[in-house]
Design goal:
Chain A: It holds the Pfam family ABC2_membrane_2. The complex is a heterodimer. By secondary structure, chain A is an all-alpha fold. Chain A is built from ten helices and no strands. In chain A, α1 packs parallel to α6 and α6 packs antiparallel against α7 (154-181). The longest helix of chain A is centred in the first third of the chain and has 37 residues, at 2-38. The two termini of chain A are 25 Å apart. Chain B is α/β, with parallel strands linked by helices. Chain B folds into two domains: 2-213, P-loop containing nucleotide triphosphate hydrolases (Rossmann fold), CATH 3.40.50.300; 221-297, Alpha-Beta Plaits (2-Layer Sandwich), CATH 3.30.70. Chain B has ten helices and 14 strands. Chain B has helices at residues 42-49, 71-74, 93-101, 110-119, 132-144, 162-177, 189-195, 213-217, 260-267, 282-297, and strands at residues 2-13, 16-27, 31-35, 57-62, 65-66, 78-81, 150-154, 181-186, 198-203, 206-212, 221-228, 242-248, 251-257, 272-278. In chain B, β4 and β5 (65-66) form a beta hairpin. In chain B, 37% of the residues are buried. Chains A and B meet through α1 and α5 of A and α2 of B.
Chain lengths: 265, 299
């Protein structure tokens, strides 16, 4: 309990900043929607004139972005990116920061087993990503409602947030595994953020080149599609199952690797 | 009963040697010195005892229990002061100490205030505002707070001024009188001599020997430096017990072992600019005592 409390306290500031950024992105994004809706321009026709590569990178595929659900579904890519970076960093730092701050000799010489320190940290991580998720949900429903005659599309957004949470969990697990396996925090965060970037680039490549479709399984960013969630109200069970199982494996690896670790001063 | 028993403990970091076949034991109720130059393997041994690192081979028990297998259980009764003290920088001293206390059952938290008073430490300061010596005090208090049966001190006096060192030694002696066993690691011979009954000497990762401090004091070397003007008869000082006599411009250096009064006699009537009598460093002792002995032992 003491470790959990301490971890929550240590992360509260950064969580607030992350949430504010997220709320701002949703707010600003929906403002743009208002802009589209107000102008009499045929936005779909306008975007059709853009090169496909650009549209893919910005996550604007084939959805009808003049409808609020379609427009919002484009956000999912940004949510995934932001949430992934947040969760992966949390995991990597939480597990390895005692060694970075030279406090390992303090905590790990207390009468606790190593997993008794690690699991409250991961629990704190879970609560942090959950709060981030809930804030995203509330901000989404609130701002969608403002541009959709008071209808916040709660059902659709809930489903999207569920998908987002599964991804957050995956990235938290991935980050914590890096924290436990790699030599120090610096390497863990570098590897984690590099991998997030790699996943993103891969997902763009898959969107651009049909030939690369088989690679989609290697990037979590292709496990859920904003449009499927927001428009077809569908969450892929297979994707969710794979991500959850892999997350579990990463968490187990975190504990095993950390237990074997020689802690540095 | 032996509180600590170390048996052929070896730790390699990859190919790099940490310690090799370290064996010694510490009896209940004693203050045991663990001495060796920097990098000899003192911290490695201690960190293996605390299961912060996993030994490559060999084993160690504390209170009769394997220290890796029963680590968390054993650590209930261990107080540890690391050589490098860093704590959560954004916390107040009080918060760190309460956090530390929260890991133990039945801690008398009033000891925080009383120990802080003895050590003259402000509990309301933030850790990152503290000097190195004051951080060390935080370390000492968190190590002693839960009245451990075994106190492990890794180079505890660095950063403490001489007065505070004295206070600290008194604290350790008091805990020892109450029944705590102490493992005291240091690279400074004189402080180990002040406090400890027995010492293990470690060098290059292996234990050179374990001996009584009294026996060690027979090899009580003093390092002399004499500054003089003009000419001095070097041979005048070349009496029995003097080694490593060197002349360097207008100063004379040597190590002396034996009756100090004989040296004082020799110094009488000499016109000196300055006289320095120092504790030789461990390295010098190793050079002039242990290595020589090794050579004599294997002619």
């Amino acid at each position: 309990m003491n470790v959990f409390k301490k971890e929550m306290k240590a992360n509260i500031k950064s969580l607030i900043i992350w949430c504010c950024a997220q709320v701002f992105i949703i707010f600003a994004g929906m403002m743009k929607y208002q802009g589209f809706a107000d102008s009499q321009v045929d936005v779909n026709a306008l975007f059709a004139a853009f090169p496909e590569e650009i549209m893919v990178v910005f996550g604007i595929g084939s959805v009808d972005i003049t409808k609020v659900a379609g427009f919002y579904s484009v956000f999912f890519l940004y949510f995934m990116l932001l949430a992934a970076v947040h969760a992966v960093m949390f995991g990597a730092v939480a597990v390895s920061k005692e060694e970075r701050d030279h406090c390992a000799d303090f905590v790990y010489t207390k009468p606790v087993r190593r997993f008794q320190v690690i699991w409250p940290k991961l629990l704190a991580g879970l609560i942090n990503i959950l709060i981030f998720n809930i804030v995203t949900f509330c901000a989404s429903v609130f701002f969608i409602a403002q541009h959709n005659d008071g209808n916040g599309l709660i059902d659709k957004v809930s489903l999207t947030m569920l998908a987002l949470f599964i991804l957050q969990l995956f990235f938290l697990a991935l980050g914590s595994m890096f924290g436990a396996v790699l030599k120090n925090t610096k390497r863990a965060t570098a590897a984690a953020s590099g991998l997030v970037m790699g996943f993103f680039i891969l997902s763009v490549a898959v969107d651009l080149y049909d030939k690369l479709d088989f690679l989609a399984i290697f990037t979590p960013f292709k496990y859920f599609e904003g449009a499927t969630l927001m428009i077809n109200d569908q969450l892929s069970f297979n994707s969710a199952a794979i991500l959850l199982v892999v997350s579990l494996v990463f968490f187990v690896l975190t504990f095993v690797a950390f237990n074997r670790r020689d802690l540095s001063t | 009963m032996n509180v600590i028993e170390i048996n052929q403990l070896t730790k390699y970091y990859g190919k790099h040697r940490g310690i090799e076949n370290v064996s010694f034991s510490v009896e209940e109720g004693e203050i045991f010195g663990f001495i060796g130059p920097n990098g000899a393997g003192k911290s490695t041994t201690i960190r293996a005892l605390l299961s912060l690192i996993h030994p490559t081979s060999g084993s160690a028990t504390i209170f009769g229990k394997d220290c890796i297998k029963y680590g968390s259980e054993i650590r209930r009764d261990i107080g540890y002061l690391p050589s490098e003290v860093f704590y959560y920088e954004h916390m107040k001293v009080k918060e760190v100490l309460n956090y530390s206390a929260s890991f133990y059952d039945n801690v008398d938290t009033s000891r925080i205030a009383s120990l802080a008073e003895v050590m003259n430490l402000d509990l309301n300061k933030r850790i990152d505002d503290l000097s190195y010596g004051n951080k060390k005090k935080v370390g000492i208090i968190q190590g002693l707070l839960h009245e451990p049966r075994l106190i492990i001190l890794d180079e505890p006096t660095g950063g403490l001024d001489p007065l505070m060192q004295q206070t600290f030694f008194e604290l350790i002696r008091a805990e020892n009188k109450k029944g705590a066993t102490v493992l005291f690691s240091s690279h400074i011979l004189s402080e180990v001599q002040k406090l400890c009954g027995r010492v293990a000497i470690i060098k290059d990762g292996t234990i050179v020997r374990v001996e009584n401090i009294r026996d060690m004091q027979k090899h009580n070397y003093k390092k002399f430096t004499l500054d003089y003007k003009g000419v001095m008869d070097v041979q005048h000082f070349n009496l029995e017990g003097v080694t490593n006599l060197t002349v360097n411009e207008n100063s004379l250096h040597f190590l002396f072992k034996g009756d100090i009064n004989r040296m004082v006699e020799r110094l009488q009537g000499q016109y000196l600019l300055n006289l320095l009598v120092e504790e030789p460093s461990l390295e010098e002792i190793f050079m002039h005592y242990y290595q020589k002995e090794e050579k004599e032992a294997q002619p």
